[in-house]
Amino acid sequence: MSSAATAFVDATVRTATPLVLAAMGETVVERAGVINIGLEGVILSGAFGALVGATHWGLLGGFAAGILSGVVVSLLFAVFVVQLRCDQIITGTAITLLAVGLTGTLYRSLYGASGAALSIATLAPNALPLFSKIPVVGTGFFEQPLVAYVAYALIPAIWWWTYRTHAGLALRAVGESPIAAEAAGVQVGRVRTGAIAFGGALGGFSGATLVLAQAGTFAENMSAGRGFVAIAIVVLGRWHPLGVALAALLFGASSALQFLLQAIGLALPYQLFLALPYALTLLALAGVAGRVRAPAGLARVDDV
Amino acid sequence: MNVRRGVLRSSNVGVVLLLAAIVAGTGGVLIAAGFDLRRAVEALISGSLGSWYAIGSGTLVRATPLILTGLAVAVAFRAGVLNIGAEGQFVMGAAAGTAVALSLHAPAVISIPGALLAGAFAGSAWAWIAAILRSRFHVLEVISTILLNFLALNLLSYLVRGPMQEPTHVYPQTLTIPIAAQLPRFGPMTRLHLGFAIAVVACVAAWWAIRFTAGGFRLRAVGANPFAARSAGLIDVERVTMGAFLASGALAGLAGAIEVCGVTYAVYENISPGYGYTAIAVALLARLNAAAVIATGIVFGALEAGGAAMQRDAGVPSVVVSVVEAGIILALVVFQRVRVTNAGSSQ
Fold it and tell me: How far is it, in rounded angstroms, from Cα B57 to Cα A174?
């Protein structure tokens, strides 16, 4: 039973890591008043970039290429929503569609139509001394690949940056009232572009994590909805870094439930476990969404 | 805004220019990736418009689900409802339509309407979840409909591997529906079925209703500005929104049932190659005009049919069509100022 519990915590953190990364980035983006539905495409591009980078320049090159791909795709989004002031939802949908098409076409042309099980060495887990010895949760939380620790560190860092620095204040001002921010001398377009690029970097990093720290390979559409889930998680976490991290853990835990239930010996259809996280996220949103307030300027483009 | 940009935006020149750039760019990607572009283009054209068979059995058959889901999206967007969930509603409609078609042992006059109505009802019910989440719990429908898509796909996967699986339990799909439930075709030599006519009639009816009825006026008023509609027009915004949601879901569900009764005759996991997402492009290209959806649905049907031929004959992955679709959406969103976010999503 204790091994099942360990496996449960491990699977929870594993599922949550790429979600935390992507959702942290999206939190910053939404704090600037922009909703990037294209996050799904950003993650997918990051995953593909990581594959290409890793096959040429090794693991580090893979992560760099993944992050870079995420930034490039999100800057394309920024051109449309910040420079040209286009509708954010429609643009984001198109960006995702674009990423699906581009990565699919390039993948097949570079690595063959069959996609013959291409495998890349993945990042090995590093045990943190002391912490990993904590009973039950120790190995799950502290014997993870390096990327998980990056995700942990991002949570307080982004909190501090958004709430305790001038730049963070400017970011929140832009999200709440772009007109007031503009009047106070904040360059709204520049702040939004910066936020979108940062969100793209983390989205790309999230995609790279999928390939280089988890799957060890790439598959078409391998982001499998994580970008959309990350956006839901941002709402669930009330646009606050700590809340967002907890929401990601909740999602991870609900998809890891199968390990616990299998250990008990409950035979349920596996699709139930695949569907459970989505259903729980919906329910949790219903409980939370009415009582929280989004950044007031979210998704509005025609002021300023 | 400078003058030059203003001129570009006010005309269709910009759209054409950007589209040309996209087509050239896509071609460039294909050449760079080492594909034979000429063969690809030949396959694209011959697979979609090259012969009467390609037009009828390829393009128009592919266009049918795209017209109906495109109409579903157009109706919702017109009312300021951001239904990104046509995919899930389509899948639920396909499953429900199949279930009814398989269990009704009745003549065609009962079986076919029964299956199609069941599909529409199931799609509507699936959309209702998102509608209630929006009206009671203030959950953004953009998020809830996307999550519901994933739920629907998992539910379908369970159904075709569990309770609805064919009796030998070999293939993850249902039995073939009885002949009485299959939609009649327009002749022995074509795969084009009655569903296409139903889709066209639905578009014309929706166009008429949106343009000439009081309900259609309310829909447009709510979509244009929900606050003004409420305060100046004494319109029950909640009710109109709910109605648009349910109608949109019903159309997408109907599309699913028609796909089963007209093309696949059974339901399986990948019954939709993303119709619900392409539908967004179909609706936007039609500028949310219900009648224009017929034309844009056929355009995208040709792209999809041609894309399939391209993969078959020239080895070019058919996903490249998504790149073109994305390009079309981006061109429209810049130059036609298509916009949905500020319309009705604010609460």
Answer: 52
